[in-house]
């Protein structure tokens, strides 16, 4: 089952055009649309050619939004319709050439974007520039790609910049492999930190608290933070003020049973 193509409504013409071209190629109709298969003079072949031309027109027309459908003249061939669309909307892409070049030369990697997404974004820019007759050579694309990477890739950037003979595809493969390696290392480091934190917590839970004095209850063996008496007093509303870890308590507990009001560090 074919995936439906989003209808063209005036935006991203180059992407839409590539998708339509692939669909026409899949149906063996692209030769008619690009003009390589001209109208046959043999009457026995003309009927089949016209049928294929109609199918091509249907694919193109059904992939246009209602607002753009008026550009389709069914009395014309699929090639004429295709050329008309390219003339109308391709011109807009030409006007965007300078803007695309600015995007390319300012192209930088966002830390939250994966390497594969970053590379796809670069390829999209390069493809759009090629559509407006501003093709980028592989050597320039490699330099732009390396220059766009964040500082965490500085080592691999230095290494790859020393290899002059590698292709753009080889460089991309190396960068994807580096991302996979660093991600795996980061996951291993995170697991080590988690294990260390867990061991530290267990150590503190087991550590001797016999000499620790609670500044709230004035008993040894626990801190004020862990004091159950203090927790109960808070629930009962006996704590009448609490600022900067100092609490005034009504009838605070006393090691000797005193009921005098006093200040306690919580």
TrEMBL record:
Amino acid composition bias (Acidic residues), ranges on this chain: 251-266
Pfam families: Retrotran_gag_2
Single GO MF annotation: zinc ion binding
Ranges for region Disordered: 182-202, 247-266
Entry superkingdom: Eukaryota
Protein name in UniProt: Uncharacterized protein
Protein's organism: Taxus chinensis
